[in-house]
């Protein structure tokens, strides 16, 4: 059995087209099935939206993390961040390996944007240590993100064994490109795409990506390959493009 595995991060825009006119949940599920990731980190996952369930026949009745988990045959965990009377959304982690949900870290810093980091541990076969997954969605304003970087740094330092392999991924909204300095250096992380190509991946907007908003940072893991999934069908499914990395363990630490 190969010791490599694939992780994908993807902001799915609540399963809707960029202008919220069409349901894209089934198309996203089919496209992700074709990718067949071992670990999937999703942002803007709709846990419930009663109005859309009534308005659109193809909008799932069940939570989207459960829908994708069943469709892709993956274990799933959901972290609820933004809660409204008839709807809520957040982050999700799905895994082909055994999955142990740990904590949904609240990194909200203003009333307009409810953000979180979903902490799970997965157990690939024959590993001597758990693989820590942190699925994040950060704010739009740099001033807010600087506080969230510090919150993530403190959480990792205070909670997670520094010898365990770790993936911190998601939508960082980092259009000013400050995450590497604020997060990676302090935690000993490397960005998977940067490690191969020397530059950050452009993932937004999906039809003509010019901004690097989505990241996969890793620690105690070797990056075998990194890719942004361009073109059809991805350009019509969400406002973000997904990115993947093929990784393998580095147990020398």
Automatic annotation (TrEMBL):
Domain called Endonuclease/exonuclease/phosphatase: residue spans: 9-240
Ranges in a coiled coil: none
Superkingdom of the source species: Bacteria
UniProt xrefs under InterPro entries: Endo/exonu/phosph_ase_sf, Endo/exonuclease/phosphatase, GPI-anchor_lipid_remodeler
GO MF, any single term: endonuclease activity
Assigned keywords, A-Z: Endonuclease, Hydrolase, Nuclease
Name of a matching Pfam family: Exo_endo_phos
Protein name: Endonuclease/exonuclease/phosphatase family protein
Species of origin: Vitreoscilla massiliensis
């Amino acid at each position: 059995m190969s010791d490599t595995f694939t992780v994908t991060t993807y902001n799915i825009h609540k399963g809707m087209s960029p202008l919220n006119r069409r349901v894209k949940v089934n198309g996203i599920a089919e496209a992700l099935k074709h990718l067949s990731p071992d670990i999937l980190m999703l942002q803007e996952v709709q846990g419930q939206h009663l109005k859309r369930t009534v308005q659109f026949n193809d909008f799932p009745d069940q939570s989207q993390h459960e829908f994708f988990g069943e469709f892709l045959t993956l274990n799933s965990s959901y972290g609820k961040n933004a809660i409204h009377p008839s709807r809520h959304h957040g982050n999700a982690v799905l895994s082909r390996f055994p999955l142990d949900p740990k904590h949904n870290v609240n990194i909200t810093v203003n009333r307009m944007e409810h953000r979180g980091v979903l902490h799970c541990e997965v157990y690939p076969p024959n590993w001597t240590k758990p693989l820590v997954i942190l699925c994040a969605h950060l704010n739009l304003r740099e001033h807010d993100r600087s506080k969230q970087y510090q919150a993530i740094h403190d959480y990792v330092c205070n909670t997670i064994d520094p010898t365990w392999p770790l993936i911190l991924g998601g939508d960082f909204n980092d259009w000013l490109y400050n995450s590497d300095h604020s997060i990676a250096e302090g935690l000993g992380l490397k960005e998977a795409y940067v490690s191969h190509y020397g530059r950050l991946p452009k993932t937004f907007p999906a039809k003509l990506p010019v901004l690097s908003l989505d990241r996969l940072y890793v620690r105690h893991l070797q990056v075998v390959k990194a890719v942004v999934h361009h073109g059809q069908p991805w350009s019509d499914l969400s406002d973000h493009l997904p990115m993947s990395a093929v990784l393998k363990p580095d147990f020398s630490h």
